[in-house]
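Budget justification note: compute hours in this period were largely spent on complex prediction jobs such as the one shown. Inputs:
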Amino acid sequence: MPEGPEVQTVVDTLAGQIKDVKIAHAAFFHPKLAANKEPEQFARCLEGQAIRRFSRIGKYLILETDAYDWIVHLRMEGKFYVLDEHPEPKDKHIHALFDLEDGRCLAYRDTRKFGRMYLYDKVSDPHTLPVFDKVGPDILHPFTDEEKKKLYRQFKSGRAVKAILLDQAVIAGIGNIYADEILFASRIHPETKGKDLTEEEVDTLLSNARKILSDAIAHKGTTIRSYTSSLGVEGEYQDQLKVHQKEGEPCPVCQTPIEKRKVGQRSTYLCPHCQKPKSSD
DNA sequence: CAGTTCGCCTGGGGGC
DNA sequence: TGCCCCCAGGCGAACT
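Corresponding output:
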């Protein structure tokens, strides 16, 4: 479910709730959740560990314990909950439980079972872990000159600009909701080929991306559809959305009805008046 | 190599 | 009510 801002909200919330609290006992109930170790071994490693630092790259949570780097990707619907006690019986969508030394319990719940966890021996810089090999620079971290040059090169492609924005190997942290909002703010049609964009337009996209994602973090992310966001924290950014899931509603700028279509298999919302295709299309 | 489609999973909602 | 189909904020494998 989460994109960068929702994952950042999870990072901040978890840090406020369970920092430095030791895990007394861990158990996995869905074998695929532990992606790079046997679930048993994964669980045993975490016992006796406390999470000392919480951070994020793109949509990945980074939980640094005393001896390990614990990396979590929530994919579509993964969520953490801090419960007052071990749930008994647990509901069928809870796929891992981490009993804490103070009696509380950290539960991982994921109806679609897409989420994955990775555990590595602690390294000095988690960015160097293999799980991040194909992950580009986070949109909210400042880019080096080299990263910026590489980005311009990656935008020079025949793919739709929306597909490029969603490609985590190019830039990390943008998902389907915010991609629509970024393109609308930039007045760029989602199917514009990357190579048809000027460098100025790429700059506009990146600066709108930063602005929109930081604003979304300030609102604790977006909660759409009926379920609550991770940890039961309700984001508020859905009230700020201009086009995503607004099919038929008037564009906030020009009142033209918002249009829905598929771009690269993903539902896409745009204003057909504000976001005109380039003439070459 | 670049770009596109499929498969993974489950539940909710709309149409009939 | 029930059933069927489609949809969902993601990603990697498999394919062309």
